[in-house]
């Protein structure tokens, strides 16, 4: 995934290598999912995220589950959608002044 | 190799202007509980306490080797294997839904209120029996300890008083707060587990290891192996109880699934070590006439002291069981009350310690009823709960099977289904049903019908509950499934 995943997604291309969510690029995919949820808006579903990023569903679900467990994401009250969690702000603060300014 | 993202423009915009999520409120329907107060390690302590692996590992391998004979190890592998599979299945819910109602809320959210109420009935009966069992067995083994120590056997009134003291302490500690009760459970289980490990290692060193033939299947009976697996299921039942604390756990979607897996892993490891020691004692020791307690100690050790020591050990384990099972039961009752399915007063929380204080104090006395009946009818204090526990295992197994059945419905409803968890749930349901059926057939052959009767009663009560609500208050049914939903402070905000 590159600059990545969002560009590929908008171009409608599938990743050339089957992705299982266990490679180092899982981190890139996690950021791509965070970015996609920020772009699509709070309440976007797992399937919509998978379709937009053209990631395999199992991979998307696995990364979503991990991000929810770490509280970077939260589920909507009806459990169907996802939104950014407050821990994303903590991450932004840790990254540095740019995140803080944002 | 792909390059990492250079910028995250949408995230930057979201940080600057956090988006709103429709339906998110400032307070959840479960407000009042101590949200995010339980450390992950204490959560493991709670779950382990309900299974009481240290107490059961003292006697279980002896029972298994005597009842199953060759192949007892295979029974254990099957039983603990089933528990591991169930853990994986329950994690499908525990990573998505944090609810004090745990299993009944999971099933309600997936399939609807009818099956949810069936599971709720099974949980009330199952967890209630675990509390009563913990109380009466702690007193029973305490009596054994005092008798062995030469302090005499206390009379019925003192025994009942001791049971009241045990449940009273459990209530007070639980009301004082979930952080304290889970910390006590963890500390107790850590000491008990360390003691058991020490006892096993010393025993193996004393009598010498005996690995030859330990995995032999010569003369093994498939039926007895399956019966042994059902026995292992009975000593792991309740491993999911920490899920009832999900609304109060730190990083709940991570800590609850891990606590379930850790509980089964710790129980299996303690059992395996105890099995090794037991096998070594039976093979290498010529002390077959000695009782189970004395087998753990050298012949020079006073038999009465051995009994007193191990009885005290088991008694403490059962007090921890009563404490943690009471906490789990109180949260199920609290959840049902907040849903409007039980009197609303049971949904009150303590203003300072944020525990479900009314549920705890109102249901705890019920745990004394079996002990009181046993004493009043001239029986030993733990006689009734011992039988009830065997029945409660089947009741909870029914609940487990229904949870497995609900997995595909939940995943399809959320649009998150894949084949592996659905296949795993099907395997878990078939294994649970199969091993339970073996137990039921064995019960019928012995003309023992209590487990089936209680299971049927629990299911009939759940179905009647549903029908009554359909007639009297259908709105309550529509609202069922309260969980610790996302609140405004969880969302990205300024």
| Whole-number mean pLDDT of chain A | 78
Q: Percent of residues of chain B in beta strands?
A: under 5%
Main sheet overview of chain B:
none
Assign the CATH architecture of chain B.
Answer: Up-down Bundle
Instruction: List the helices and strands of chain B in order.
Output: HHHHHHHHHHHHHHHHHH
Side-by-side strand order of the widest sheet of chain A: 1-3-2
Please report the number of helical segments of chain A.
6
Q: Would you tell me which CATH topology of chain B applies? A: Amino acid/polyamine transporter I
Q: Strand-residue fraction of chain A? A: 5-15%
As an assembly, this protein is heterodimer
Report the biggest beta sheet of chain A as strand number plus sense, adding barrel if it closes: 3 strands, antiparallel
What Rg of chain A, in angstroms, do the CA atoms define? 13 Å
Q: What is the typical, i.e. mean, pLDDT of chain B?
A: 92
What is the CATH level 1 assignment of chain B?
A: Mainly Alpha
Number of strands of chain B: 0
Descriptive account of the structure:
The complex is a heterodimer of chains A (102) and B (494). Chain A is mainly α and 102 residues long. Chain A has six helices and three strands. Chain A has a three-stranded antiparallel sheet. The interface between A and B is large, with 47 and 42 residues.
How are the SSEs ordered, and which strands pair?
The complex is a heterodimer of chains A (102) and B (494).
Chain A: H1 5-11, H2 26-40, E1 44-45, H3 46-53, H4 57-69, E2 73-75, E3 81-84, H5 87-95, H6 97-101
Antiparallel strand pairs in A: 1-3, 2-3
Chain B: H1 9-16, H2 40-51, H3 53-67, H4 72-94, H5 102-110, H6 113-148, H7 156-176, H8 178-207, H9 222-236, H10 252-284, H11 292-295, H12 303-338, H13 357-363, H14 369-376, H15 383-414, H16 419-445, H17 450-472, H18 474-479
Helix pairs in contact in B: 2-8, 2-10, 2-12, 3-8, 3-9, 3-10, 3-12, 4-9, 4-10, 4-15, 4-16, 5-6, 5-15, 6-7, 6-12, 6-15, 6-17, 7-12, 7-14, 8-10, 8-12, 9-16, 12-13, 15-16, 15-17
